[in-house]
Design goal:
324 residues, alpha/beta, Gyrase A, domain 2, five-stranded antiparallel beta sheet, three-stranded parallel beta sheet, 10 helices, 44% helix, 13% strand
Length: 324
């Protein structure tokens, strides 16, 4: 058993043998004269307490360690009182301390004992912080349960942190998409118009006919815009062109019929209806043109009528609704 004699009284370490009989009970009635006597009194008190808590175990050997200079007298006094082997423990020799540190090793036993107690799996039976109290035995089952609970809590916290990180990242992407969607929503009418135009061009292409050539051809063979102008033009996959025109007079429509037939189209009878517009074109008619299979268009042989001097159809201001 090791008793540090520096600022606190020493304690006892037990081994499984018979209970220690302490027969001297008059030592507490006299006042200690020396440090050795005072330490011996505390040792005997500790042994009495140990005998009460561990009735089936006894102390068979005592070891004294310290750096006060009174250790030798304490060893002699304890050996005389207990009638048990009592020796002076030198940590420098036991732990093979280097020579330059030996003078400090004798007072380091409490710190060494605490380090051994912390590093030992089962814990030491001696509490160096409270030498008069039995050492608290480690409950490994409880320690494992607490460690498992701590690991579970850490896992939950880690999972929640990862979840929040992913939520924040996806929320950022969602906000960006919402901003982009709001911007694109403003362009929806333009996109829809482009889709319709693309669908029309695709339909023309799939029909196997060069409708743009017919459009340019009709622009060349029709009378000048001072006499007639087209209000709508539609085509079908069956090779049919439908025109809606506005004309100055009935004679202009008759002239139109002749010019279209001369251009190679089969013209259905014209349906002429009065319908003046704000520009002075008094008649409206719908013309259906059937494209003969042998019709060949050569734009180099036709000449487009001259554009009127007051034509503003290409004026940007007019196209934006600024004139008309």
């Amino acid at each position: 058993m090791k008793f540090p004699v520096e600022p606190a009284p020493a304690s006892a370490e037990s081994k499984p043998e018979a209970t220690l009989p302490v027969t001297d009970t008059n030592f507490t009635t006299t006042k200690p004269e020396t440090v050795a006597d005072a330490v011996t009194i505390e040792v005997i008190r500790s042994l009495h307490a140990f005998s009460g808590t561990e009735p089936n175990r006894s102390v068979v050997r005592v070891a004294v360690s310290g750096a006060t200079g009174h250790e030798a007298a304490v060893v002699e006094a304890i050996a005389k009182r207990l009638n048990r082997p009592c020796t002076l423990l030198d940590p420098a020799t036991v732990f093979e301390v280097p020579a330059d540190a030996r003078e400090h090793a004798t007072g380091a036993l409490p710190a060494i004992g605490l380090a051994l107690g912390c590093g030992d799996d089962g814990g030491l039976p001696f509490d160096f912080l409270n030498p008069k109290k039995p050492a608290v035995q480690r409950d490994m089952r409880r320690i494992r349960i607490l460690a498992g609970a701590a690991a579970a809590v850490a896992l939950v916290v880690f999972t929640l942190a990862i979840r929040q990180y992913l939520i924040n990242r996806h929320q950022k992407v969602l906000d960006q998409l919402r901003t982009q969607l709001a911007t694109e929503e403003k362009q929806r009418p333009t996109f829809q118009k482009m889709v319709r135009h693309a669908a029309l061009v695709k339909e023309w292409t799939d029909g196997g006919r060069s409708w743009l050539d017919h459009y340019a051809y009709l622009s060349a063979v029709l009378p000048a815009s001072e006499e007639v102008y087209i209000t709508s033009l539609g085509v079908s996959g069956a090779g049919l062109i439908r025109l809606t025109v506005q004309a100055r007079s009935g004679e202009t429509l008759a002239k139109l019929d002749k010019q279209l037939r001369a251009a190679g189209y089969d013209v259905k009878p014209l349906a002429i209806t009065p319908g003046a517009d704000r520009h002075g074109y008094e008649f409206r008619s719908t013309v259906e043109l059937i494209i003969p299979p042998k019709l060949t268009i050569d734009l180099s042989k036709v000449k487009t009528p001259a554009r009127p001097a007051d034509d503003v159809s290409l004026d940007p201001t007019f196209n934006k609704g600024g004139g008309g």
